[in-house]
Amino acid sequence: MYVSDCISVNERGHLTIGSYDTVELAKQFGTPAYIYDENEIRKNLREFKKSIDDNYGGNGLVVYASKAFCCKEMCRICEQEGTGIDVVSGGELYTALSVGFPTDKIVFHGNNKTCDELEMAVQNDVGRVIVDNVFELETLNEIAAKHGKTVGIMLRIKPGIDAHTHDFVKTGQIDSKFGFALETGEAMEGIKKALEMPHIKLKGLHCHIGSQIFDLDPFELAATVMLDLFKEVKEQTGVELEELNLGGGFGIKYLKSDRPRPYGDYMRKVSDVVNRYSAELGLKTPFILIEPGRSVVGAAGLTLYTVGAVKKIPDVRTYVSIDGGMGDNPRYALYQSHYELICANKASEKREATVTVAGKCCESGDLIQEWTHIQPVAPGDIIAVLSTGAYNYSMASNYNRIPRLPVIMVKDGKARVVVKRETYEQITECDV
Ligand code: LLP
Description:
Blueprint: E1 7-9, E2 15-17, E3 20-21, H1 22-29, E4 33-37, H2 38-56, E5 60-65, H3 72-81, E6 84-87, H4 90-98, E7 106-108, H5 115-123, E8 128-131, H6 134-146, E9 151-158, E10 180-181, H7 186-196, E11 200-206, H8 217-237, E12 243-245, H9 263-280, E13 287-290, H10 294-297, E14 301-313, E15 317-322, H11 331-335, E16 341-343, E17 353-358, E18 367-374, E19 382-386, E20 407-411, E21 414-419, H12 424-428
Parallel strand pairs: 4-20, 5-6, 5-13, 6-7, 7-8, 8-9, 9-10, 9-11, 11-12, 12-13, 15-17
Antiparallel strand pairs: 1-2, 2-3, 4-14, 14-15, 14-19, 16-19, 17-18, 20-21
Helix pairs in contact: 2-9, 5-6, 8-9
This protein binds ligand LLP.
């Protein structure tokens, strides 16, 4: 009935997440707040893990892309579930390290890692640095030499695939700031260079073709393009690379009309291609890494807000103002992303009102959704925005010096704070 399996309505007509009454959560923890169903996150991680076991005989690693939602508790959950973590900054790396995450399962991304970040990766023996460009390759080799270490890396390749997604999140094509281009020969040059470097161990190659993708074809195509490159590397250098990282990007349901394929289907189809095509090219099936982010946490989270002013502008529209906004969810302002909204305390009523939900920032564009269908709402009602588990908390800002929201996790009938609500003191803490 809803976009996420963990959402339902109870006998009081209140929206629930993981069977927990969201109206009670709003009372207990205040609004605005992000709420996650921990079991749903674990279920998704297990599904991806199982598909590596089923389709690659366990010869692979699920690496959760923590840019989707990163905090200590999320790192602990990944550790307990036996997955790796993809970090993309010193801050994400620090978070993973701070809970003692096994460093051999950390994958470090980024198109412009600073020297400090590379130092941090080398000193902490991060398992795989995904090198984006030649400058970074040379810098990393120097840093590793200074520490007398050899660093495991993969090179990020642009496989030149248009995944038909939102322009802002399309990263596989040649006109992209990420990675080594195939067409220009830059990729092969980078590979040869890496193979010659004394403090670099080139483990394999990486690609990521975009985000919120429903189509399976671009993933299959990317796998074949990458394996062709493996073959070419073998022919030109005699080295058979061991690992292939296929990135993330699997779409989730934001609206009922969205039709993501079950992740098991994706994994089966892509693994068919990988296993068959490797054999055809005379290659061993490489160790496979995948980097799901949104698909692990997106539909496992929602945001609760309290309604303030309701402004009916005759013959124009109705603005419903909430106590959060673009500071905690910038995705409508940035990408015109769609969401399903429910009045949590009137969840069993009909969604008869058409309203624009506006945030509290001093900015006309601070909208969460326009012309959305929701139950008729009044001041004091609780609005839930569904599927906000990915790229909401992680993309939040302090615009207008509004404190960041807390993160609450529910599991087996218990709710707990995993990230505290930010205070005004914390907001001014770095001010001198
Ligand atoms: N691996 C790499 C190298 C990536 O760049 C990304 C996402 C992922 C994995 C995870 O992709 P996912 O499975 O979450 O689709 N802020 C945008 C999304 C940006 C995604 C950037 N890279 C949004 O809110 O839609």
